[in-house]
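step=encode ok
step=design start
structure_in=
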C-alpha cells in the first residue's frame, strides 16, 4: 500500500501545470523518460514493443504492474499501469485505496462513469492531464491506471 500512496503523492500536484508520474516529469523527452524508468529497474519488453518505438512495454520484477507508454514525435502522450492481481477482492481493495489516495492528493472528486461492484471507472482531471482508474473483474481480475497528458 505504501507504493500506492507514493504513486498518488507523486502523480501530480494541484498547483502545477506539469503532470508527474512517480516523481518523473511526464514533460521529459520520451527517451529520457524511458531511460529514467530503466534506472529504476524497468526493462523494455521487446516482444511487446512495436518496432517504431511508439508503444513501449516495460516491466520491473519488483512491481505488480507492467507499464505501457505511448509517444508521438518524441513526446510522451500516455502511460498505463496494468496490474497483475490474482483475486477480484484484491483488485477491488486496491482500486478503492488508489481512488481514495488520488482524491486526497488532488483535492477533487472523480467523475465516475461506471460504479458497479465488478466494473468501476474513476476519472480525475489535473492541470496537466487526466488519471483514469479502471477496474474490470470478469473472468480475470483487471486493474489499470492510465495517465494522459492534456494536448
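sequence_out=
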Amino acid at each position: 500500500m505504501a507504493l500506492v500512496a507514493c504513486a498518488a503523492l507523486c502523480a501530480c500536484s494541484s498547483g502545477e501545470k506539469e503532470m508527474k508520474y512517480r516523481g518523473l516529469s511526464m514533460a521529459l523527452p520520451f527517451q529520457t523518460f524511458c531511460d529514467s524508468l530503466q534506472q529504476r529497474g524497468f526493462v523494455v519488453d521487446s516482444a511487446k514493443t512495436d518496432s517504431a518505438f511508439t508503444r513501449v512495454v516495460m516491466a520491473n520484477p519488483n512491481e505488480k504492474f507492467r507499464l505501457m507508454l505511448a509517444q508521438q514525435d518524441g513526446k510522451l502522450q500516455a502511460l498505463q499501469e496494468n496490474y497483475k492481481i490474482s483475486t477480484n477482492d484484491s483488485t477491488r481493495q486496491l482500486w478503492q485505496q488508489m481512488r481514495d489516495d488520488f482524491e486526497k492528493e488532488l483535492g477533487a472528486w472523480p467523475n465516475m462513469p461506471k460504479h458497479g461492484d465488478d466494473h468501476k471507472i474513476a476519472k480525475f482531471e489535473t492541470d496537466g492531464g487526466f488519471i483514469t482508474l479502471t477496474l474490470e473483474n470478469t473472468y480475470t481480475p483487471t486493474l489499470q491506471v492510465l495517465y494522459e497528458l492534456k494536448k
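step=design ok
step=annotate ok -> The first helix runs from residue 2 to 11.
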